[in-house]
Amino acid sequence: MKILVSNDDGIDSPGIAALVKSLKEIAEIIVVAPQYEQSAVGHAITMKIPLRVTPYYKNGDFFGYAVDGTPADCVKMGIRNIMKEPPDLVLSGINNGSNAAINIIYSGTVSAAREAAIMEVPSAAISVTNHAPKNFDYAAKLARRLALKMKNQKLPLGTMLNVNVPDVSEEEIAGILLTKQGKSTWDDVYEQRKDPYGKDYYWLTGKMFDVDTDADIDQVAIRNNYVSITPIHFDLTDYETFKKMKNWHIESLMNEKET
Amino acid sequence: MKILVSNDDGIDSPGIAALVKSLKEIAEIIVVAPQYEQSAVGHAITMKIPLRVTPYYKNGDFFGYAVDGTPADCVKMGIRNIMKEPPDLVLSGINNGSNAAINIIYSGTVSAAREAAIMEVPSAAISVTNHAPKNFDYAAKLARRLALKMKNQKLPLGTMLNVNVPDVSEEEIAGILLTKQGKSTWDDVYEQRKDPYGKDYYWLTGKMFDVDTDADIDQVAIRNNYVSITPIHFDLTDYETFKKMKNWHIESLMNEKET
Q1: A198 part of contact set with chain B, CB < 8 Å
Q2: With an 8 Å Cβ cutoff, are A180 and B106 in contact?
Q3: pTM to 2 decimals?
Q4: ipTM of the complex
């Protein structure tokens, strides 16, 4: 089995080292990861400027390729250019911090895995729910088991798994739950400051506004110390609204009076 | 009616000027748009560096605010900081180039509108299907009619409309269709070049690999000269796979043998 590993915290982050170390026991690993941290870049891709690829040796831990772009760039570059043929699996992580509910939209870690799904390669994103996680080991072990599971249980083309692991010791993990994406969002605040020259600048802060309550929602599962596994895809069509909008008669916009 | 206008081509682009000019006839307009072009940035937000906001006068066409960030940043900044209360509507565009099928994932234009939807403000993204559009006027007129329609027909919270207008004259528009997101993706190619110092760099190119055939798919509608309107949301859960994965018994990953 060949596994392409990427992330959004950068090729230097401890999370990717823990993941590679664990996966090496079961597969050939190719690392293609961002040269610099790329958190919250969403599904950005680099088109207007060129990319560079730098061979990278991490303390003897692994050899890989650093790309001066986004997580989605790394997966495209890895599959289209660096590898001779597509990998069996793409794993992205292990991310510092939860990627549940609305964070799925902003996450670079998830976008790396989603880019793989778009390219019809099975994939998963792995995150630990703390910005300075203490417990990468359990998540790394779980990623290895999941990789073996995904080899036997085929995901539909275009679907990926989003995995969030609570940052607690293995003994404190309550279980593993199949979940749906939550609806919790951020209560954003722009902190206004003055630079040394008296000019205003704004720093995004805020906290998660936690509105989810059902046990099978990603956000709730991790709050209850469960590992959360959510199948996600890239079809954003709101089918329910699609049906309801038949009553809008949008074709009338062709020549409707504007008042 | 108050409308917040943003885009991803930058506050200087002709598309946003055409949109503002048209909307001014029916509403008070607040422009908050990226200082520089931000195509394909996806749903990136800026957290690790601060943002600046610069008042901007465009040839007497409109007054607005330029933000040195992403389209999603502009909408957050506009709603949280610049406006006293949320607008009635957010419109993003008019974009140079189609945002149908997989491009919805990469698009900064769509992400601006989606950020508004996340913030529970009704919104739409408007694109014209050509990278150097000749026909902004019809799209601008349509956006104005759609704004009035959206005032009366409420979208569910969290859902936005993705509008693609063929770049043809008004007479050639075949009609307006309610559509679903297509599955067409890109056949990426990294063009390898050498810099003046003999080092390799890679430029992303490629063409759309058009696999959609049904008449009610965004990609097909615009190919047939129809205006395409797709309701999209930010729940990425693949519910069908969620049901099927009950058979995976993922809880067994807790202590499964690894072979």
Answers
A1: no
A2: no
A3: 0.94
A4: 0.92
